[in-house]
Amino acid sequence: MRGSGRVVKPSRAILLAGLLAIVAAEIGLRVLTSADSRWNVRLGAAREFDPIAGFRNKPGYELAPGIRTNALGYQAPQPLRVAPPSGVRRAIFLGDSNSVMPTIGAYPQQVEALLDAELPGEIEVVNAAVPGYSSDNARNLFEHELSRFEGDYFFVYLGWNDLGQFGPEGLPYKRQATGYQVTPVQRVLSSIYLLRYAFLMPSMLDRERETFDRPLDAREQKIYGDYRPTHFERNLRQILSLAKRRYPHVFVMNLATITNADPTPSELQRAHFPRGMGKNMRKLDLLVRHYNDSVAVVAREQGVSLIDLHAAFDSREARETFTDSCHMNRAGAARVARLIADEIGALEQTRVRDLARPAADS
Predict the structure, then answer these.
(1) At 1, is the pLDDT very low, low, confident or very high (cuts 50, 70, 90)?
(2) pTM for the model
(3) Which residue range is the domain that position 35 belongs to?
(4) Which of 46, 240, 251, 275 has the most Cβ atoms closer than 10 angstroms to its Cβ?
């Protein structure tokens, strides 16, 4: 009672109940949201847990009318045999959501349609891309499963999820897991799932802000200027190194994007951002360029062909096909498909000429 001078202390039962509630919440978050949990609710309806790759597309899942994954979760023939049918050339695609969206009309689908019109029945497409894949997920899937399938053409389009998760202002607990340096305080907060919301709250508030474009201040210039996506480079290098041993023709694509040095109001409105950037398009544009520099370095080092998607979309007309910072509509996917189909078509013409030459010489 007020005025009695007595302080009512919470009972041990209440304290114990509170402690148990905190422990239960911590365990629940680890079970339901950890990337290593098969009960991760964030995977959604179209994906499932995978002990090696982390997650994958669900097998036999209807992504859209007439588009269903095979027994491995790929958009590919069912059953998918190790070797393509006799007389058929196979093109394999490894990537993230940019290789499966739009669901109807994604660029691998359009590549298959273009080549089927030019080379009827001669090209088979295997699209093993999974929305949400970082270079970690993709490398594990490729090394442990996808690379056992024979093929003639191999294409890699990765980087957006690495950029979003492991950029210089990304969530510390994700950066820490891939070897980037974090502060001792960030390390402590990252080890407790309940405290991770301390990192998420500012990002949630950023979603309500307007997108803007302004030069970086001195602190931001330091953070972004010193950043190099070494983790992405390492994984991409391993993927391409193995791909060269498995396939005659290997291609890597750099990042196409809506970001640019002089964005229009429409481009600013459509752009979306990784956590921590504060919706400054200048940061995202710089980060994309860092990743594309890494793609170029690794492609040159590995001696594989680079398809320059960034240049292909470096115009206001081309950027109108973006639905956000990186995903395209069907018209944008058609641009990518045409570039790839032209590469394959030229190589197929060369192959046919080379096969015919000995007969002509004799």
Answers:
(1) very low
(2) 0.88
(3) 12-43
(4) 251
